[in-house]
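User: Hello! I'm new to structural biology and keep hearing that structure can be predicted from sequence alone. Could you demonstrate with SapC family protein? Please show me the input and the output so I can see what each looks like.

Assistant: Of course. The first part below is the input, the amino acid sequence of SapC family protein. The second part is the output, the predicted structure written as tokens.
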Amino acid sequence: MANIVPLNFEHHLQMRVIESKDFTRFASQHLIPVVFHEFHHLASEFPLVFVKNTETGQFIPVAMMGIKPDINLYCQNSNWPASVYPRGFNNAPFSLVKPSKDEDNVLVCIDTESPLVSADDDSGHRLFNDDNQQSEFLKKRTEALLEVAAFTEQTTNICQLLASKNLFTAKQLTVKLLKNEQPINIDGVYVIDEQLLNQLEDEDFLSLKRNGLLPLIYAHLVSLQQIGRLIEKQNQYDSNH
């Protein structure tokens, strides 16, 4: 069980954190939220699609890491098999928490039950120096958390802009696997409709260009070709299980 608490030197002076590419904590999460700022490098490995929050109606970009729900094909063991991974994977065991909705300030928190937290004096990075000041490691990790938070907010704004131009369209992905007699239909996925994009009024299209969004949109569209890679990985997984 997680135990997420605000980080402070009084309680965590000797605490250390191990850096690891063991992402098995995502083993049952086949859709991983991502931000637009990482589309270019993630598109070389994962299909990047959108899902819709049923409560808020907001669109959220995700990297598909599995064909079947509850199976992340990349995170079944501790050896990460790809050359790229989402920024958010590096957050653990840290997180940012707002004390209240009305405050702009955030607290840096840590999951003290995380396997990345070490009690060994010889392993991991210290979070605080002997003078009670933040270590360089903690400063860099905090900066990375704040950067991801800023990117997430910007991603929300970009999705709202694209939705306002009615560019999202629902797409049912039909996948045929070797061990399944019937094709699998993947529902609840949205993509940017290239035809609607090309039909935009000139001013709307140019506004996307001025805001640097066209390369991100095209990275998303190109990434859909990676569905074939996922099918191959699913077939390999099914043959071994």
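User: So the tokens describe the shape?

Assistant: Right, they're a compact way of writing down the 3D structure. Reading them back into a model, for example: The CA atoms of residues 127 and 227 lie 40 Å apart.
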